[in-house]
Amino acid sequence: MSPAVLPRTGRRRAAVGTTACLVVAGLLLWWLLPADSAEPSGRVTFSTGVDAGVYEKYGKLLQRAASRDLPDLDIDLETSDGSQENVARVAQGRADFTIAAADAVEQYQLEGYPGGDRLRGCARLYDDYIQLVVPQGSDIKEAADLRGKRVAVGQDRSGVRLVADRVLKAAGLDLDKDLEAVASGIDEAPEHLSKGDVDAFFWSGGLPTSSVRELSERDDVRLVPLGSLVTELHKQGGASRYYRAAVMPADAYPRAQNSAVPTLAVANLLVTTVGQDSAVTQGLTRTVIDNRDHIGSKVHAAQLVDLRTAIYTDPLALHTGARDYYRSVKP
After folding, report:
1. Which of 263, 241, 273 is CA-nearest to residue 106?
2. Which among 8, 136, 286, 302 could disulfide-bond with 220, CB atoms 3.0 to 4.6 Å apart, if both were Cys?
3. CA-closest candidate to residue 120, choices 129, 109, 132, 131
4. How many CB atoms lie within 10 A of CB 207?
């Protein structure tokens, strides 16, 4: 018996049907296949902060966590003066990732410095609390009382210096004219206060900061309220909009305060650039979130990293790698 021969129209329909089936099968196979599982690899530089500061400790703990989660990725840590130097390093290609306060990020962009438009956010981490520390018996009751005093205001390229300058302006003081400013950070300022070399020091960091806690346990010190300055700060415009009123709870430094202290806070961001490898960025963002509790056991502020708020990296757009991570874990 001769084989049946389909009419030309039937052959065309059969071919179309076969093609459609292949397309559907291909799409189904693509859907069922696991996503690209290539692990991040290579070497990146992470700019941290001053010795004994929260950024430096956070960087070490993140490096340790990443060595377990991302075994093919090597992270080199570099200390810095703080947020302002960190932002400049990443923007100018001298570091790949960093932590920086939102005000320092925006200030860098507003000033039009190189690479500012290339900066991208990976996560909103935790808030820095602005801390003004003085001896218990000091006559400094508010920021305006710093007139004529010797005050440690952080290193020149630190976020602390940026904050101190703005807080002093809000209090009606000029950092360069109305007091003796000492370029000293959290690695030196507590010792200077103990020895009487300064009358007060500014610090901007997560709660509690170990150096401030240790100082309060050996010396009689207290924290000066700053919360009333938030309105005057916002009047300065620009990056000052990132400061908000906050409260340091009584148990932050129990030896230095009998009750909660009103102050100011600003968010910290995990920062990279638009050109950073997406797989590396996604992997490091995942490590930050997955190790919140582990890192937070040593850096208490890190316990506040929250998946629901981590995506709010204003003033920076999310890096595509970080965005892909958040989409992958979205309920």
Report:
1. 241
2. 136
3. 109
4. 23
Question: Nearest to residue 257, comparing CAs of 151, 73, 129?
Answer: 129
How confident is the prediction along the chain (331 residues), in pLDDT tens digits per residue?
Answer: 444 444 444 444 444 444 444 344 433 433 343 444 468 999 999 999 998 888 999 999 999 999 999 999 999 999 999 999 999 999 999 999 999 999 999 999 999 999 999 999 999 999 999 999 999 999 999 999 999 999 999 999 999 999 999 999 999 999 999 999 999 999 999 999 999 999 999 999 989 999 999 999 999 999 999 999 999 999 999 999 999 999 999 999 999 998 999 999 999 999 999 999 999 999 999 999 999 888 888 777 777 788 889 999 999 999 999 999 999 998 6
Burial (CB count within 10 angstroms: exposed 0-12, middle 13-18, buried 19+), residue 64: middle
SS3 category, 280: helix
CB 51 within 8 A of CB 187: yes
* CA–CA dist 310, 82 (Å, integer): 21
* DSSP-derived secondary structure letter, 172: T
Task: Name the pTM for this structure.
Answer: 0.85
Q: Do the beta carbons of residue 69 and residue 283 sit within 8 Å?
A: yes
Omega cis (within 30) before 208? yes
Rg (CA), the chain: 26
Distance in angstroms (rounded) separating the CA atoms of residues 82 and 220? 27
Whole-angstrom CA distances from 305 to 104, 268, 293, 302 are 20, 10, 9, 6
| Gap between the Cα atoms of 134 and 111, Å rounded | 33
- Asked whether the bond before 315 is cis by omega within 30 degrees of 0, the reply is yes
Using alpha carbons, select from 300, 295, 304 the residue that is nearest to residue 208. Answer: 300
Q: What does the DSSP 8-state code read for residue 3? A: P
